[in-house]
């Protein structure tokens, strides 16, 4: 059964809110922007058909304020809510409340979000679905003695991870038993502070993995496809700096294997809408499930560039009850795409750099796309994520894509605040990166000599 979606409230801000508005305009769908006091002059507020202030500057008072968001949705009489990424995008509670209020949540079912949001439960579910997982604890670790026994069984090094979150918080690498008790307590404390849940688990640690993710799209009728992989190994403290598609090392056979595993798992758990399977790829070619993101990803544009798929359009069509518009055999990977996350940060210290943007020039030319909500005269607020733009390029080959990104970075001007543009220039010029010979340890192992 299909349902007509005529108006969507976007429960987010910044570039992803603008990105969703772009597709809604093409589809003839009205949009409602929510915003905090700090975002009154934001571009997503300007571009949406309607706008509602939902609270004060901190996220807890605005973009995480569920009662205010639902009230805004009811007042503006929307048919659906798109959560974007971050904030409430992976909140099973929010998804449930939306459905209870007869507002379509543009994402998977609440029970699936909850299942994948608990990393221990997700590991257990994926293992049952035939997805390779690393040896580790089947349940949250209760004591240091339990952790020590399991670590001896798995073999050091091991990694402690938060069951309820990610992004490097509540995570500790342990190389010997004497470090285990202290690392466990620290990880539990960090997890509790970050996610209000101190549960952690342990799994075997891979020293130099690649971080590879598979984009999946599934409708509400049991159909599912994948759109290939993204290479996400260039990270700092488990935070991605740039992504590319396809991966420079994945073979067509590996792509088919990883994609088939992800698609089969989606069908087994009844997944719908878009999602991303994140895998660790070992140096011997083995891959292991890390987590599943039940939302659109920051890095989705590189997949769009090499497949010509509009991932947001697919989300909305699926939420409308439509069948997938194409089959796996229709998916073609063409050329190469790279995305650099441009953050309002000191490129050396990685400290936030909020403030007034006095000059802002977006590069153009063949194969260049910029997703941003910044503009000259815009003040970057200190309350939210520091990303101000995503610079994306597409070219026939990876070599040409790197050259195109270098040119685009040279032509991108952001004045008044510090940004990570100088860091990205150094990465593009690095021989290890250019050759494709890197792992998630790239930033630790490479002295980039970035100028402030």
Question: TL;DR of this structure?
Answer:
This protein has 452 residues and is of the alpha+beta class. The protein has helices at residues 14-27, 43-47, 66-75, 92-100, 110-117, 119-128, 144-154, 180-195, 252-269, 300-307, 311-319, 398-411, 421-429, 431-435, 442-445, and strands at 7-10, 30-36, 50-55, 80-82, 104-105, 158-162, 172-174, 200-204, 210-218, 224-231, 235-236, 239-240, 242-245, 273-281, 287-293, 336-343, 355-356, 359-361, 368-372, 379-380, 387-395, 413-415. The chain starts with 6 loop residues before the first strand and ends in a 7-residue tail after the last helix.
User: For the CA atoms, what is the radius of gyration?
Assistant: 21 Å
Give the termini separation. 56 Å
Largest sheet: 5 strands, parallel
Largest sheet, spatial ordering of strands: 3-2-1-4-5
Total number of helices: 15
Low-confidence stretches: none
Mean pLDDT: 96
Percent of residues in helices comes to 25-40%
Which structural category fits the helices and strands? alpha+beta
Estimate what percentage of residues fall within beta strands: 15-25%
Give the total of beta strands. 22
3D shape: globular
């Amino acid at each position: 059964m299909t349902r007509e979606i005529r108006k969507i409230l976007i429960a987010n801000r910044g570039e992803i809110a603008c990105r969703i508005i772009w597709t809604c305009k093409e589809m003839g769908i009205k949009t409602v922007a929510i915003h905090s006091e700090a975002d009154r002059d934001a571009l997503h507020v300007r571009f949406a058909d309607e706008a509602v202030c939902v609270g004060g500057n901190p996220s807890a008072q605005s973009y995480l304020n569920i009662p205010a968001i639902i009230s805004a949705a009811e007042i503006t009489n929307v048919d659906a809510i798109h959560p974007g990424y971050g904030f409430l995008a992976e909140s099973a509670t929010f998804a449930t409340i939306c459905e209870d209020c007869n507002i379509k949540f543009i994402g998977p079912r609440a029970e699936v979000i909850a299942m994948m949001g608990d990393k221990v439960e997700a590991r257990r579910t994926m293992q049952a679905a035939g997805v390779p997982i690393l040896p580790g604890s089947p349940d949250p670790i209760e004591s240091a003695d339990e952790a020590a026994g399991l670590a001896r069984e798995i073999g050091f090094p091991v990694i402690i991870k938060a069951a309820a979150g990610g992004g490097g918080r509540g995570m500790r690498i342990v190389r010997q038993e004497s470090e285990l008790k202290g690392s466990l307590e620290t990880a539990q404390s960090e997890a509790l502070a970050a996610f209000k849940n101190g549960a952690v688990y342990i799994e075997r640690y891979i020293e130099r993995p690649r971080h590879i993710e598979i984009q999946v799209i599934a409708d509400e009728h049991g159909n599912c496809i994948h759109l290939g992989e993204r290479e996400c190994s260039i990270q700092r403290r488990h935070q991605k700096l740039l992504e590319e598609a396809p991966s420079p090392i994945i073979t067509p056979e590996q792509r088919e294997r990883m994609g088939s595993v992800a698609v089969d798992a989606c069908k087994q758990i009844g997944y719908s809408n878009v999602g991303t399977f994140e895998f660790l790829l070992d140096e011997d070619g083995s891959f292991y499930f890390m987590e599943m993101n039940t939302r659109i990803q920051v890095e989705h544009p590189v997949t769009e560039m090499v497949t010509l798929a509009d991932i947001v359009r697919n989300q909305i069509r699926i939420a409308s009850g439509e069948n997938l518009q194409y089959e796996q055999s229709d998916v073609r990977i063409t050329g190469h795409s790279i995305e650099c996350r441009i953050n309002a940060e000191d490129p050396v210290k990685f400290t936030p750099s909020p403030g007034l943007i006095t000059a802002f020039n977006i590069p153009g030319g063949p194969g260049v796309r910029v997703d941003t909500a910044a503009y000259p005269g815009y003040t970057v607020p200190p309350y939210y994520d520091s990303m101000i733009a995503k610079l994306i390029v597409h070219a026939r080959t990876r070599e040409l894509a790197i050259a195109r990104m270098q040119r685009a970075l040279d032509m991108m001007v952001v004045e008044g605040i510090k940004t990570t543009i100088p860091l990205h220039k150094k990465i593009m010029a690095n021989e290890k990166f250019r050759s494709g010979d890197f792992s998630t340890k790239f930033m630790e192992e490479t002295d980039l000599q970035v100028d402030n």
